[in-house]
Design goal:
10 strands; 8-stranded mixed beta sheet; 27% helix; two-stranded antiparallel sheet; 8 helices; globular; alpha/beta; Rossmann fold
Length: 285
């Protein structure tokens, strides 16, 4: 059985001919398995500092397609991400309903999964995930200009690439060791020998998973849901969180200190909140 200090084990699945990398921690305590879904531009190790608080649960943290150690793909629609996650559950999770925890874009993907496959989901936590429509004009300002098309210059060494790693949006108060761990797993060496982010910018294309309005899907979500957002977040605010909660049959809202990446600034505190939520809704039978 796992302990909070256990390192995760890496698993590489073949999904439709593509490599999909996952981190698996066995956990102990008999709670429902937990699927941890990172946001756009992130990777599975974003959960490293938080996972020890969830030791009563087996946890699975995939690198989404186009991220981390998983292969890049020809498209990044929300249904593609959802199909990948179903394949992960089929391969690595026991045949029981799981708890979903999604941050940012990951919350949009878990919402899609909970709406389309409610029998697979026991509970869900959405961490600073905007589910409503994003205006194309706004998306074009901060997203489309960074999408695929113009090659990134790259960096001469791993150390320089890691030093250039930045969070978007910025988040104060993150421990240096947490940032160092994120940066260490955020870069890879390209075929030309230069170092770059291991993230396909095509994920940012406007036809991807982060622009459409998911609010109409919430009526199909049957599981208890926790909606947590940062008090200083520029992604989701109190009104948007309340609208999501009102549309869900069993939801609660929590405003936490910090911005969009509050789970990185206070992994222990966020972990306690999630542990309490899971104990109530996804604990041992």
């Amino acid at each position: 059985m796992g302990t909070p200090s256990d390192s995760p084990t890496s698993h590489v699945l073949s999904v439709d001919g593509r490599r999909l990398h996952c981190l698996l921690r066995t956990g102990q305590g008999g709670g429902a398995p937990v699927l941890l879904v990172h946001g756009g531009g992130a990777h599975a190790h974003w959960w490293d500092a938080l996972v020890p608080a969830l030791d009563g649960h087996m946890s699975i943290a995939p690198d989404l397609r186009g991220h981390g150690q998983s292969d890049w793909a020809e498209r990044y629609l929300i249904e593609d991400f959802g199909a990948d996650l179903l394949a992960v559950l089929d391969a690595l999770a026991p045949p029981v309903p799981v708890a979903l925890i999604g941050h940012s874009m990951g919350g949009r993907i878990t919402t899609w999964l909970a709406a389309h496959h409610p029998q697979r989901v026991r509970a869900m936590a959405l961490l600073d995930a905007r589910l409503g429509q994003i205006k194309a004009e706004r998306a074009d300002q901060w997203r489309a200009r960074r999408a695929a098309g113009t090659p990134r210059p790259g960096h001469a060494t791993r150390a320089v690439a890691q030093a250039a790693f930045r969070l978007t949006p910025a988040e104060p108060g993150i421990a240096a060791e947490v940032l160092a761990n994120l940066a260490a797993h955020a870069v890879h060496q390209r075929d030309d020998g230069l170092w770059d982010l291991c993230f396909d910018r095509a994920v940012l294309d406007l036809d991807g998973s982060r622009v459409g309005d998911l609010l109409p899907l919430l009526a199909r979500v049957q599981c208890p849901t926790l909606i947590a957002y940062g008090a200083e977040s520029t992604v989701i605010g109190p009104a948007q969180a309340a609208a999501c909660a009102a549309a869900l049959p069993a939801a609660r809202c929590e405003m936490l200190l910090g911005g969009h990446h509050f789970l990185l600034a206070d992994p222990a505190g966020v972990g306690r909140l999630l542990r309490e939520f899971l104990a109530e809704h996804a604990g041992p039978p």
